[in-house]
Amino acid sequence: MIELDTVSKQFGQKVAVKDLSLSIPPGTKFGFLGPNGAGKTTTIRMLMGLTRPSSGTVRVCGLNPRREQRACRIQIGYVPEEHLAYRWMKIGELIRFCRAFYPTWSESTCKRWLAHFSLSPDQKVKTLSKGMLAKLSLLLALSHEPELLVMDEPTSGLDPIVREEFLEGILDMLCDGEHTVLFSSHILSDVRRLADRVGIMFGGQLLTDQQTDELVASTKRIRAVLRNGSPPRRQPRGIICQEFDSREWSLTISHFSTLTAKELQDAPEIRNFDVVDLDLEDIFKDYVRGARE
Amino acid sequence: MRIDTGSYLPIYDQIIKQIQSAIASGVYRPGEMLPSQRALALKLKVNPNTVRRAYEELEREGVVVARQGLGMFVRKGATKRARRREVDALRQQFVHAIRSVASDFETERIEEVFRDALDATRKKTIDKSDDGNPVIR
Predict the structure, then answer these.
(1) Burial profile B89-117: b = 16 or more Cβ within 10 angstroms, e = fewer
(2) Nearest to A122 by CA among A148, A98, A90, A151
(3) CB-based contact A66:A52 (threshold 8 Å)
(4) For the CA atoms of A60, A114, A94, A184, what is the dihedral angle to 10 degrees?
């Protein structure tokens, strides 16, 4: 559904995305994590054909999103970071305007979400609150019943109640058929609920790309007490980040297994160690911390 | 049912455990239908694929059975099986606790601590005080 092959994007001297390769098959719900400035929005804009990559190839729904922008765009429901332009229009006018672009527009889906989100066609867009704008933006993205939904931080800055309604809208769509979703978010509980696959981006590069449950279940933090303060000469594989504090060595490891545990047990430099479970937030922070060092 | 997004436990695992305990405690009885995948996904606010995965696992374990076009039904004998599984889970927790903090304790000492813990949980019944507020005794 989405194919990126060694894609880079430079703005002047600044590298926003560097050699990014990513393959997302149909049906995947992909959550894109990364601190501000990691290159998520640039990547999403390249998928939408709004930004031209400096090098590499981008394919979305089998098309080149820049050269075949129109054919590509009508297959994607897009919720941009900045919700909506056309603020002088009324909701009803905006809907009629958007409807004209999409041959697959469903009047019944649109009506259902207008009612569910308590939006009225007579309201002016510029009078809407941030939460209502977000809902309108989602409504427009869902009403042409796209195969692929792309959202750039759709729920940031929304209150928990609007966020829940928003989530319901997405889930309602996901329950009917095999849709593909790619979204970026800083709200890790939403990512945990929605994404079956997670990519963590930093400095324009993908640090990891794993199944969500596997990532959370197999990333562990080790707290080891060292005999004389120096770490084992043979370090375990998959270290994401590490820290020394006197004789305590704490390290976060990806793909932790009984094999890793055995390696640590056998290391003569380690007196003893604990294995600690991590949640998605800790894992995300440790990846970024490790990449910064 | 509730999903803890802060837990390291996979969400489908959380769903499986909660449905099993609901079956063990008689919330769902043999022959009854579980919520549809769609209804549960919307209620718990999780990806419907995750619910499907949990239901498939429960079916593999023989707790529920899918009836084409209808939904998931609790199987005959599932209550007993789910209860046995809860006992297994409890036993595993004990094993983990003993191994991690009490591996060098004597058996009598462990039994004593266990009885203490049991007493402490049994005594914790909630009464109403005179002003109507709940008090934990």
Answers:
(1) eeeeeeeeeeeeeeeeeeeeeeeeeeeee
(2) A90
(3) yes
(4) -40
- Domain range summary for chain B, segments of one domain joined by +: 1-124
Residue A8 CB neighbours (<10 A): 16
Distance from CA of A218 to the nearest CA of B (A): 9
| pLDDT over 50 (residue B91) | yes
CA distance to A72, A86, A147, per residue, from A51 (Å): 14, 21, 22
Interval A245-254: pLDDT, tens: 878 899 999 9
Separation in Å, CA of B55 to nearest CA in chain A? 15
Report chain B residues whose CB lies below 8 A from the CB of A194. 46-47
Q: What would the DSSP string read from start to end of B49-89?
A: HHHHHHHHHHHHTTSEEEETTTEEEEPTTHHHHHHHHHHHH
Domain A2-209 in CATH 3.40.50.300: yes
Whether the pLDDT of residue A68 is over 80: the answer is: yes
How far is Cα A150 from Cα A181, in angstroms, rounded to an integer?
Answer: 6
CATH architecture entry for B1-124: Orthogonal Bundle (1.10)
* pLDDT tens by residue, A139-195: 999 999 999 999 999 988 889 999 998 898 899 888 877 899 999 999 999 999 999
Contact A171 B41 (CB under 8 A): yes
All structural domains of chain A with their residue ranges: 2-209, 220-277
- ipTM over cut 0.95: no
Does the pLDDT of residue B40 top 50, yes or no? yes
pLDDT 10s digits, A77-92 = 999 988 667 788 999 9
